[in-house]
Structure formats: C-alpha cells, structure tokens
Amino acid sequence: MKLRILGCSGGIGGDRRTTSILIDEDILIDCGTGVGNLSVEEMRKLRHVFLTHTHLDHIATLPLLVDTLFNDLHDRPLVIHALEESMEIIKQHIFNWQIWPDFFELPDKSRPSIEFQAMSAGETRELQGRTIEMIPVNHSVPGVGYRIQNDTGSFAFSGDTTTNDTLWEVLNRHDGLDMLVIECAFSNSEKQLSDLAGHYCPETLIADMSKLRHRPRVFITHLKPGEEDQTFQEITEGLRGFDVVRLHSEDHFQL
Ligand SMILES: [Zn+2]
Ligand SMILES: [Zn+2]
After folding, report:
1. 111 alpha carbon to ligand 2 midpoint, in Å?
2. Å from CA of 220 to ligand 1 middle
3. What confidence tier does 156 reach under pLDDT thresholds 50, 70, 90?
4. What are the pLDDT digits (tens) for 74-114?
5. Ligand 2 center to residue 19 CA distance, Å?
6. Which residues neighbour ligand 2 (ion) by CB within 5 Å?
7. CA nearest 60: which of 88, 39, 90, 80?
8. How many domains does the chain have?
9. 3-state class (DSSP) for residue 146
10. Which residues face 125 on adjacent strands?
11. For residue 137, which ligand has an atom nearest its CA?
C-alpha cells in the first residue's frame, strides 16, 4: 500500500496544504487543498473519497475535483464515503446550486457524477485488498478517523479530534499498527482554544497516547501555521516511548 501526503497543515500559505491523503492511486482520505497537487491525469485515477468530517479544510477541493473530472464521471461516479450527517451537510450547503452545482443530479439524476455511500462508525469497506474501517472520534462536528489495512501493513488517521477513548479502543482491538497519523492543531499555550475547537494540543495528545498498546511510527499533522515548531517541540519533549515525526506535504510512504 502506498501513501502520499497531499496536505497535512492546519492552514495555507507557502507550501502548506490542508488535509488530504492519497492511498495507492484511487483512494483519497479528505479533500483539502492538497488535492491541488495532483495532476489531472492523477485525478482521473481516483475512484473513492473517504471524508472524516465537513470542515472546509477537509472538503475545500471536493467541489472543484468533481467539476474537473465531470466528463469522466458520467458512467462511473466518484464514490464518497462519509457519515450520513456529513453528507447531509455537504448536500445542503455545498452542492446546492448556490455555492456549487448539484453534481448529485448532473448530468442527470439517473447518472450522477457523485455517488454517496453512507458509512457508520465501526463499518468497514473492502476495496481491492484494502480494508478501510471508520472510527468515531471527538470533534466539534460529527467526525471520524480511519484505519486502513492490507496484506503488508496497517495505517491509521485520526481526522480532527480531541481527547477520546474510541480511537484508541479500536486501534487496540487490532493486532498491530505500523503507522499513525495523528492531529495536534495547537500548542499548549492555546489549550483552552484546542479544547473548545475539538482539537488536540500536546498535553491532551500525550495523555491520550498512553492509551495505545501498539508502538507505530507516529506522524503529527494539522499543526496551525506559525505554531508548528512550538507545538512539535512540546510533543517531542513530552511524549516518551514513541518515534515521532512531523508530517510534510508530499511525504511518500510504502506500507
Ligand atoms: Zn475540523
Ligand atoms: Zn481540520
């Protein structure tokens, strides 16, 4: 299984891109501004999008992606996997003919460009040898993370979350975990804000990491612009027993 990090920042500016991860050539997790790194040829190979939640930094390029691929999607819609609540929000507020055309009924209702497949927390999808499990987390809107496994490795992505038990319980239920991409948006100086916004800060992240029985390689994502160095330093100073790395756009991994 190949992973390409398209975006992993909590904001934009310079080479910062917001959340999107490409798995092999056909699956996207989230649709932040990182999707703009893909060539049109690479976009044409996409078949599935798994969304963690509806915040703009995770869905910003979904409308533009569908529009770019429109002529390719007439007989083969792009499949969006997400919580029912998330898709209702996206239908109501994005594909509503006001912000963007309703690609759920374009070119016509019998041949939509996007197909929605609702997922519930705990559900899995099998896609050509890759098992993708949706995991509930604790964000300011309904949110999930995902665990992806194939014959050669396993990887988990937290999505946006603050303190929770669900992510850790699910990860511990499995035999192992090779790689964990986990968010930490704010530094400890903004703990109040991170609690309010449903994000981790180093203090809450480090406390939660003690719930994990596995020792995967840990990659920190979603650092807020301007606080990256401070936040990452606080994590490395406080987190014992893990190999921790800061994630960057265009990092590639093979699992
Ligand atoms: Zn969010
Ligand atoms: Zn976010």
Report:
1. 32
2. 15
3. very high
4. 889 999 999 999 999 999 999 999 999 999 999 999 999 99
5. 7
6. 57, 160
7. 90
8. 1
9. strand
10. 132
11. 1
